[in-house]
């Protein structure tokens, strides 16, 4: 997906087994972020950054939704372990990840693999993507601050 595209209606099922739809957020903005694997160092740093700045993002009108290939139970454990108070979608079939363009080839430690491309989409009140943070742009430990710099301009 690109800037100007509308995100899909059905986003998936979160860590509590609840269906998440983009229409549930109509009239509100979304930080929609994809991460490779729950409970890993980079993904934990990113999620904790977003949680720590959740109130500041909310003050700018944003709600947070995370997406990975992890199973519901793993998403639940991740949320519980780190006090994450936002939906974590379990896209085990990678349907949404592929639709978003956050699934593809990547290089880690010199090895080419296919997997989740850490990406963040800032979505407006109508469900349209306004900004995309690519994998190379995202600094996991300070990602919320990166987002706030953009949205507070």
What does the model show?
This protein has helices at 41-52, 54-59, 72-82, 95-100, 143-151; strands at 10-13, 19-21, 29-34, 62-68, 88-90, 103-108, 111-116, 119-123, 129-133. The protein is of the alpha/beta class. It has a single domain (10-151), classed as Glutaredoxin (3-Layer(aba) Sandwich). The strands form 3 sheets. The chain has a 5-stranded mixed sheet with strand order 5-4-3-8-9. A two-stranded antiparallel ribbon has the order 1-2. The radius of gyration is 14 Å and the shape is globular.
What characterizes the major β-sheet?
5 strands, mixed
Name of the CATH architecture: 3-Layer(aba) Sandwich
Q: Given this structure, which CATH class is correct?
A: Alpha Beta
Q: Report the structural category.
A: alpha/beta
**How many strands appear in the DSSP assignment?**
9
State the separation between the terminal residues, measured CA to CA: 24 Å
The CATH topology: Glutaredoxin
Order of helices and strands: EEEHHEHEHEEEEH
- The residue-averaged pLDDT reads 96
Helix content: 25-40%
Tell me the β content: 25-35%
Overall, the morphology is globular
Rg, rounded, reads 14 Å
Subunit arrangement of the protein: single chain
Classified in CATH, the superfamily is Glutaredoxin
Give the count of structural domains.
Answer: 1
Widest sheet: strand ordering: 5-4-3-8-9
- Unreliable stretches, pLDDT < 50, 5 or more residues? none
How large is the count of helical segments?
Answer: 5
């Amino acid at each position: 997906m690109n800037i100007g595209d509308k995100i899909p209606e059905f986003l998936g099922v979160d860590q509590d087994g609840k269906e998440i739809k983009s229409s549930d957020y109509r009239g509100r903005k979304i930080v929609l972020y994809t991460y490779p694997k729950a409970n890993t160092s980079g993904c934990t740093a990113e999620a904790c950054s977003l949680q720590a700045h959740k109130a500041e993002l909310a003050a700018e009108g944003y709600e947070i939704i995370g997406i990975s290939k992890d199973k519901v139970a793993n998403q639940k454990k991740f949320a519980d372990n780190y006090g994450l108070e936002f939906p974590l979608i379990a896209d085990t079939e990678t349907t949404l990840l592929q639709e978003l363009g956050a699934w593809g080839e990547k290089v880690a430690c010199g090895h080419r693999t296919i997997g989740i491309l850490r990406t963040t989409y800032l979505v407006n009140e109508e469900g349209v993507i306004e900004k995309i943070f690519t994998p190379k742009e995202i600094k996991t430990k300070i990602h919320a601050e990166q987002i706030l710099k953009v949205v507070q301009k």
